[in-house]
Amino acid sequence: MSVAPLPRKAKGQRPHFFEDPAVDRLVAMVMGLAGEVAVLHDRLDTMERIADRKGMVLRSEIESFEADDETKKEREEWRAAFLDNVLRIVQQELEGEREGSSRTPYQEAIHLVENAV
Amino acid sequence: MTTMMTADQRRQFEHGVLPRPTQDERARQEFVRDFKFYLATRVSPGNRVAYESAVVPAFTAANGRPPKDRHEVRREMEKHPYYKMWSSLQRTSQEMMWNACQMPVARQLDELIGVAGSTQAKAGSLRLNPDLKMPAYHTAVDIHCQPGGYHFEAKEGDVSPGAVYDRAVYLYAMGRMGPFNDDMGASIVNWLRKEHPNFKPKRILDMGCTVGHSTLAYVEAFPEAEVYAIDVAAPCLRYAHARAESLGKRVHFSQQNAETTDFEDGFFDLIVSHILVHETSGKAIRNIMKECNRLLTPGGMAVHAETPPYKDLDLFDAFMLDWDTRNNNEPYWGASHEIEPAALAGETGFQPENAFEAMIPSAFEAAEAERTKVFQGGDFAGGGLWYIFGVKK
To answer: B332 in contact with A at a CB cutoff of 8 Å?
Structure first.
C-alpha cells in the first residue's frame, strides 16, 4: 500500500505563545500523545464489546498471551509510525528551517495582503 | 425528498468521494473534534475570566483607564499564562486536525483520484485552466494551516486538498454546519426567502466555492436556476465536481479567480460567497466587488457571508475572534473584519445606499444545543449566526 507524499507542514512561521518555544512543542506532543491514547482506547473498547457479544473470555487470554517474532516485528513497525506521529512537531520545526519560513516574519504576510497584492 | 433532506443529521454524509477512514483514523479524527469542542466550551471561556479578573484591573491600575482597543487587549493578554496555554492548545488542535484528515487521504489517494477522474458529468460540468496563476494571498502562507493550501498537487488529477478540506471542515465546525457542511449557503437561502420572497434567481454564481459545500444549498433551493461555481484551486474543483455529481446536483464548476472571470456582463442575478472574503486581500476584495458589479444584471444581488465585523462585538470578543489573524495563518482575517459595506460598494461602482449587512440565523437547527453563542477563535459555527454583507445592483 502506497501512501501519497502530501506536505505535512503548513507554509508560514509557526507562532509560539510561551517565552520558550520548546514549551509550545511539548504542549503539541502531549496532545498528540493524548490523541493516540484515545485511538487506542476506542480500539480496545471495540474489541471488548465484540468479545462480550460473542460470549468470549478475553481478559484472561490477554494476560497469558506471548508475542511471536512476526508479531514483535509488526509491533516495532507500529511504534516507529506512532513515534513519527507523536513527534510530528519536531519534524515540522525542521521542515520550517529547511524551507526558510521560520525566518520569514509572519507580519510580512499581513502586510502583503493588506497593502501589496 | 432528496438525499440532502433525508440524511442523518448527526454525521457527515458519505457521498461518493468522501475518504473512508479506518477505525483508528476515525477515532483520531473524532478525538480532534472533541478536543476542539472541549477547548471552545471548557478552556476558551477562561480567557474572559483572566481578562476581567486580572488583566483589566492591572492595566487600569497602571494606566488610569481600561484597554481602549483590541490591540491593547492582545498585548496584555499575550502575557497571561492562561491565554498562552489556551493559544498553544488551540494552534495544536488545528495542526492535529489537518494531520488526522490527511492520513486516510494519503492512504487512499489513488483510489480517490480514480473515482473523481472517472466521474461522468451527468448533471453539471468541470472546466479547468492550467494557466491560471495562483494569487499571492494564497501562496504567502498556507491558509488556516492546511499543509499545501488549496492548490497542492502530488500527482496528475489530484484531489487531495479537496478531500482533506471536506472532512476537516466537518471537524472544524464540530458538525454544526450539518451533514453536507452547507450551513452558510442554506442560511443565506433562508434569508433570501424571508427578506426577498419574490426573488427567483435564474443564474447563480458561487465565488471561491472550494469543494462546493454551500454551492449545493442553492441547487437544492432553486432547482430552476443554473448554478455556477468558481475557485482558483484545480484539485478542490475536481473533488467538488465529483462530489456534486455523486449527490446528483447540477453545478457548472470552473477554475477562475473571482477578481476577473470570463463570464459575460450581466450574466448573473445572484452572486454569493462563503468565507471567501477573509482569504483574499485588500486589493482583491475591491477587484471582486468590481467584478460582481460587471457580472450582475440590474436588480441582481451580491451576498458575502463571514463571521461578524469587529464593530458589532465588544472589545474582548473582537480580540478573541481576531486570534486567527496572527495564529492560524489567516493574514487578511483582521482587516476583512473591518470592511465597511457601503464604502466598499461606493468604491466599486455600486450605489452605497444599495449596500446592506445583516446577522442571519444558522439554518442547521439540529446543532443548536452544541452552539456556544459566542464568536471566538477556534469555535467556527458556534455563534449560531452568520454575518452577511452585500449590495443590490
So the answer is: yes
